[in-house]
User: Fold this.
Amino acid sequence: SMPILSGGFGIETEMNIHALSLSFAIGEFETQYFERPLGSVSKLGTFKDGTVILITIFRMLFEHRPLVILSVAAVVLGLAGGLLFFPIIQTYFETGLVPRLPTAIFSLSLMLMSLFSFFSGLILDGISRQRVEGKKLVLLSVGDR
Assistant:
């Protein structure tokens, strides 16, 4: 019931996240493992495959929980903008002048980007919730057949 957008080790990660987002029950079953035949070479790469899995997790996290990602970005941008703006506003109150105008403009830009990130996260989170509800409704209608 889902489009697979990943390859390799990302498929398992994507399937697990899809199942968790729709509140599916996840089960395990035992399989038998055998030793690798002598002379064979493993195609597994710890860092390469781990990187694929991490990229898939972050991509799926952004798809399913965009408010989390964009809120973190908003906090980081807001703190950076505030830290840059604090000395400027302090100097302004002491002298009545703004000696570092480019820094003031940059800090204001960072704070605006912080606001845009947060509100974009709110909008995308609403869309993401609607997508999950739509998927659940489709699954319920298929289950009735």
